[in-house]
Design brief:
alpha+beta; 14-stranded mixed sheet; five-stranded antiparallel sheet; 26 strands; 27% strand
Length: 653
């Protein structure tokens, strides 16, 4: 299974490279092994440079990915660290017939491209600086962006004008360097500016004969692998901010290096080697590929019988070896695995678990004799004590011992004794408080009953005079009769709810519309202001007791006034619904809880403390009691602005 995994990882590694990338590896193998490398030219199979295209022609094909080096800036001038996305690919072409040129392909992050305007001697534009060093000779150019001269060139493409730096303050135009640039918008919203540059290498140093110095007829030129390039950049913002100068480091991350792509192989502790073979298949060179931080690959390492590497336990056995040829090249990739691997954490967990088991057995045996057995007995006795809680003198055992168990038993016994004492004392206190409270309530009740009987007795004599002053059938006699009907309750003969229920009602045909409209108009006399009536003024008849219906509606109005929001009105509405008349009384204010819709009509129930409102818990009870005796009903419900009470009465036949 390990061999199959190695073979799979090796195939995936080799399959990551395209044809041009495979050629680049073969020709520049030593440079592409490590994850980081110095920016020097590579040898590529062909030129990827084309002249500035016009119209809608596509941009040129990019060089192989493993040619590029991602460079970071030497100073953090950008908040988003965009320079860490900037990459460069200098290269020579293998075919000498294509010309003696040094090519450069570069991609930098530039969200705002600023071009050089005509006559701008201050070079207030985006520029890329290239410095080439061959031995002791160093030459620098500034590549400046300009708008293309041709009007049919696609938008987002720029010509490059090269200025050779002759001194720190002097530059002169150099037509031997040509190129152009094009912008591409990325998925993350940023913009990449791609440079396509060609430098005439024959004219690199006009004071020396390149062919004579580097070898007549030799291409690439002798010493090309030692050429050093450094890059700088001047970014001019379109909003007028100060230009930002970026100097790039000489060493950067090699894109698609063999080490970075072989990470999965290294995780298994395998060794990766690359063999270069001649036409007969014989190995003529061998390279050990290894991460820079791993010292064990720097020599021909042989594992011992047992070795710990990066926390994993390696046990030597027969090495596993797998080969894979890199297509179209003379390179052969070889993977060597040391044998068996027990991963970090697993073998440590096994050792730790074994130690815990042994220690657990020893500790368990000791504590069973010294601690667990007494605890089992103590637990059993505790359950028996709970089952016979009434036994005052019951205690836990082991209280006479001098060890920890004895201390625990004595502590529990003291706690048990104290708890029994506190419980008995609390029980006595609760009984005393309950007796005092009951006695006080009975005294209050007797005082109230006595006061009510006195009031009833004092009212009886004036009532006799009132009865003689108001003849039977007069308008005022009905109010006197209502007082007489309530007198038994004041004298203690009836409960309050029975007193209201026993009131004699005289149902007569009444114009309920005229009655309700007049009641709304006179509500302010009952200290209920801002009552608005909406409905017919006459012509709606119901069989009602005028005093009872007045009491019912007045109680509901008083309740609505009590709970309405400040400076709001109460709205009364009368409509005919089939054989019934509906009277709705609506206010703006707090809602009624769902569980209280029926409770508010019970005698004595109120959401307002009784000491704050006299008569709380009576009005709505009276309203429902009277309306029910007139074949009517009343219900409440919440509306978005507050609460509405709906009275339903049958129409007169």
């Amino acid at each position: 299974m390990r061999g199959e995994f190695l073979e799979r990882d090796l195939r995936e590694l080799v399959g990551r490279y395209e044809a041009d990338e495979r050629f680049t590896i073969e020709q520049n193998l030593e440079k592409l092994l490590a994850e980081k490398r110095v920016v020097t030219p590579l040898l590529l199979p062909r030129s990827y440079y084309v002249a500035l295209p016009a119209g809608d022609r596509s941009p040129p094909r990019q060089p192989p990915r493993n040619c590029f080096v991602t460079l970071a800036s030497t100073q953090s001038l950008r908040e988003d660290n965009a320079s860490e996305k900037d990459r460069f690919c200098p290269y020579f072409v293998q075919n000498r017939a294509l010309g003696k040129f040094l090519f450069l392909s570069a991609s930098v992050v530039d969200d705002s491209v600023t071009v050089l305007k005509t006559g701008d001697v201050g070079f207030n534009a985006d520029m890329l600086k290239i410095q080439i060093a061959i031995g002791s000779k160093t030459t620098s150019w500034w590549l400046v962006l300009q708008q293309p001269a041709k009007i049919d060139v696609q938008k987002g493409r720029y010509e490059i004008t090269a200025y050779r730096e002759t001194s720190r303050t002097s530059r002169e135009r150099d037509k031997r360097v040509e190129g152009w640039a094009y912008a591409q918008r990325q998925v993350d919203g940023s913009q990449i500016l791609n440079y396509v540059v060609r430098i005439n290498f024959k004219e690199f140093d006009p004071e020396a004969d390149i062919d004579a110095e580097m070898g007549e007829g030799e291409w690439p030129p002798r010493g090309w692998q030692d050429i050093k390039l450094t890059f700088s950049r001047r970014d001019v913002s379109a909003v007028g901010n100060a230009p930002r100068l970026t100097d790039y480091k000489a060493i950067g991350v090699s894109n698609q290096s063999i080490v970075s792509l072989a990470d999965q192989i290294y995780k298994t502790h395998a060794e990766l080697r690359i063999h270069k073979r001649d036409g007969n298949g014989k190995s003529i060179a061998m390279h050990i590929v290894a991460p820079a931080e791993n010292d064990r690959y720097k020599t021909d390492h042989k594992f011992g019988p047992v070795e710990v590497v990066d926390g994993d336990l390696l046990i030597a056995s027969n090495d596993l070896t797998r080969y894979q040829i890199l297509p179209d090249t003379s390179l052969n990739f070889q993977v060597i695995h040391p044998g068996n691997v027990i991963e970090k954490g697993l073998w440590q967990a096994l050792i730790g678990l074994t130690g815990l088991i042994v220690a657990g057995v020893i500790v368990t045996f000791y504590f069973f004799r010294q601690l667990l057995r007494p605890i089992f007995i103590l637990t059993r006795q505790s359950r028996q004590l709970v089952a016979h809680a009434g036994q005052v003198g019951a205690e836990l055992p082991f209280s006479n011992q001098v060890d920890e168990i004895g201390t625990l038993a004595r502590g529990f016994n003291e706690l048990l004794k104290d708890t029994r004492h506190r419980a008995a004392r609390d029980l006595a206190d609760r009984e005393a408080r309950r007796s005092d409270e009951h006695h006080r309530k009975m005294e209050d009740l007797k005082i109230r009953e006595t006061n009510i009987r006195v009031i009833g007795h004092e009212i009886r004599s004036p009532l006799q005079a009132l009865l003689s002053m108001h003849d039977q059938g007069s308008d005022s006699r009905k109010y006197v009769d209502r007082i007489v009907a309530a007198l038994p309750h004041l004298q203690g003969n009836l409960a309050p709810e029975h007193a209201f229920g026993n009131r004699m009602l005289s149902l007569e045909k009444q114009d309920i519309a005229a009655f309700v409209s007049e009641l709304a108009a006179n509500a302010k006399l009952q200290n209920i202001p801002d009552v608005i009536y909406d409905g017919p003024l006459t012509g709606v008849n119901c069989d009602v007791d005028d005093g009872a219906i007045e009491d019912a509606i007045t109680h509901i109005l008083a309740n609505a006034a009590r709970f309405r929001a400040p400076s709001t009105s109460i709205r009364m509405k009368l409509v005919i619904d089939g054989y019934h008349v509906l009277i709705e009384i609506e206010n703006d204010g707090s809602y009624i809880a769902d569980e209280n819709f029926e409770k508010i009509f019970e005698y004595g129930f109120s959401t307002t403390p009784s000491e704050l409102t006299v008569g709380s818990g009576v009005g709505l009870f009276v309203a429902r009691s009277y309306l029910g005796r007139m074949s009517g009903s009343v219900h409440a419900r919440n509306i978005p602005s507050g609460v509405v009470f709906r009275i339903r009465l049958p129409l007169s036949q």
